[in-house]
Please model this.
Amino acid sequence: MVMGNFTGVWGIFEYMDETTETIEQIREKGVQPTVITPCPRHEIDHALGNPTTVLPWIALFFGALGCFVGYSLPAWTASDWVLPVSGKPILAIPPYTIIGFELTVLFTTIFTLISIALLGIIDSFRFPIPKAAKKYRRFQRDRFGVVVRCDAANLEQFETIMKSNGAEEVHVEK
Model:
């Protein structure tokens, strides 16, 4: 499959039960479908299974990086420009905790939002949606769409699954 081009089957469903049954049957064949919905529904989330993502690991990494920078930057500046005040230690942990906490939150938030945007852009190229499905406006109101990316040998199999589960329309694209 060429990156950016769509080869597969997509169908339009009116009812939630038909949509979830189709998703489950497609997943039994070892393919992860994409679902287009007018609103979030937990039934669809359950039918799609537990998705895996690297986003929590990205947030953890940048949070740890922010904490490290939050402690090391003031420690470096305090050791470089020593301002001795009575008998207090130059490198004290408690005052740096505020800076460490704030930079942990800042780094986690900013880099997680950037990662969400980048992962979304990358996924739009890895898992394309057919142009005709993007133009179908009823997905924004009252219909559910199931998109299956597959090779030409499996097109008929997934078309049959969608039609047998009550799809209003099934479109095959090669």
Observations:
- The chain has a mean pLDDT of 89.
